[in-house]
Each structure stands twice: as C-alpha cells, then as structure tokens.
C-alpha cells in the first residue's frame, strides 16, 4: 500500500508540475489578482467574445493559462482542477470578479437604426491611451464614435438592469449617467447631449431603456461646455475591490461580445421606438 501511495503521489506531482509549467498565470493567482493591470485589461479575444454565452470558469481558467491575454486564443478548452485544488479561494475570487462585470450585461449601448444608410458608430481599443485634460492620465474606458453625425443623433441605451446612482455634470465627463448593476458593477456613460425625459438619481432602469443621446459635452468647468472633441459615447466599467471603491476595467472586448445583442430603433415625429434584433 505504501508503494502504491508513493506511485500515486509521484504521478500527482508530475501532473501538477507539468500543469504549472504550461500555466504561468497560475503563479500570479492570489487574493488580489482581480486588482492587477493584467486582469483589468480584460483581453477576452475574438473567440470568447464571439460566443453566445458567458462561462466564468472558462474565462478564469483560460486567462490563467494564457497570462490574461486571449486575443490569439482559438482553443477554448480549459482545465481548472489544479487551480481549484491549489488556490481555491483566490480562484473563486477571480471568477467572481468576472461574474460581477459580465453577468448583468445584455445589450450594446448604441442601438442600430432601421433607416437604410444610417452609419453605425465605430470604436477601437483605446485602453490606457494618453489623455491630457486635467493632467496626464491613461484612458479608462472605450469611446464609441458617432461617425460624423451631429450631437443628439444617436440614442444611448442601458446595457443592463440597474439603478441610476449618479446623474449630472462632470468637468471631464460632461453630462453623464452612472448606473449600478444588480451584481455591483458601475457603468459610466459620459459626454451625453441630453437625458431621457424625467430620468433621475435613484431610478430603476431596465436593459435597453433609453438613457439619452450621444454628444460632445465635457472638458469644461462650465455646464454645457461642448465642442472640445468629436461626438462620442465614453463607456466606463468599474468594480469595487478590497482596496478600491471604483477600479476601472477595459470595456473594449466586452463591447465586442455585446455587438451581437444590438437593439434596433426607428424614429417617427418626436418618438423613438426600440426593438429586439435577435
């Protein structure tokens, strides 16, 4: 029996060391991995973003296996048993952070017009790109650009259910809305032109509800400052962690995932109607 035990232990150790060698991200896994720059970059990649569902174990395990960068990952097979055995608390904390961010998200924040020839907004990964207004800093969000349309043209909708936690003017963000999801993420919609009628702090909103219209407000202490940049929606996503009240994560690949869930809209005189597109 003792010899059999030694053989089993040897097999386990060999398997574990092989797995560790193939998964360098495992060495980074600790109780505060969810506060790291690697985690915050949210590099889900096209394969994960192209799925019709979110599997938090899959994302967590693949991120550990690929050093938190899935942009070149094509094989979505994952193995999480070693992480759960060796570092169960840290693994569950990291998986829970992905769930807080992704669980409540349902729609792309800008619906698509039913009118033929209406250009759809464009966006790129601008995470941590240099910004200088108010002091040099890295960009903590994703800008969805209005493709040369005037302020007030593109409607902006809530990407989740939640509660309006903040609304009003910010020097950098202009007319903005902050919504807290049911899972605890904070969604920040900035540079708006106007708000949906009667929207106020404390209101409950549903995913797909009209929040307002895309604009170019902000970068000014004076309310209604406009024209300092092109018309766009700045989307920010934040979570509460052990050390931060609001810690930003990169929305780019999250938006790529949500692209398949665009609502459509049509306009009539003084009215806007939203409808499902899937």
Task: Give a brief outline of the structure.
The protein has 278 residues and is an alpha+beta fold. It has helices at 2-22, 37-40, 45-49, 56-65, 81-86, 88-102, 252-258, and strands at 112-113, 122-123, 130-131, 137-138, 142-145, 155-157, 162-170, 174-180, 186-195, 204-205, 210-214, 232-239, 247-249, 264-268, 271-275. It contains seven helices and 15 strands.
Polypeptide structure, described:
By secondary structure, the chain is an alpha+beta fold. The protein has two domains: 2-102, no CATH class; 112-275, Glucose Permease (Domain IIA), CATH 2.70.70.10. Helices cover 24% and strands 25% of the residues. It is built from seven helices and 15 strands. Strands 2, 5, 6, 7, 8, 9, 10, 11, 12 and 13 form a ten-stranded antiparallel β-sheet that branches. Strand 14 and strand 15 (271-275) form a beta hairpin. It starts with a helix and ends with a strand. 34% of the residues are buried.
Order of helices and strands: HHHHHHEEEEEEEEEEEEEHEE
Tally of individual helices: 7
The domain tally reads 2
User: What is the CATH homology-level superfamily of the largest domain?
Assistant: Glucose Permease (Domain IIA)
SS content category: alpha+beta
- What CATH calls the topology of the largest domain is Glucose Permease (Domain IIA)
Mean pLDDT: 89
Radius of gyration: 22 Å
Helix-residue proportion: 10-25%
Shape: globular
CATH class of the largest domain: Mainly Beta
Strand content: 15-25%
Report on the biggest sheet: 10 strands, antiparallel
Low-confidence stretches: 5-22
Please name the CATH architecture of the largest domain: Distorted Sandwich
| First-to-last CA distance | 60 Å
What is the number of beta strands? 15
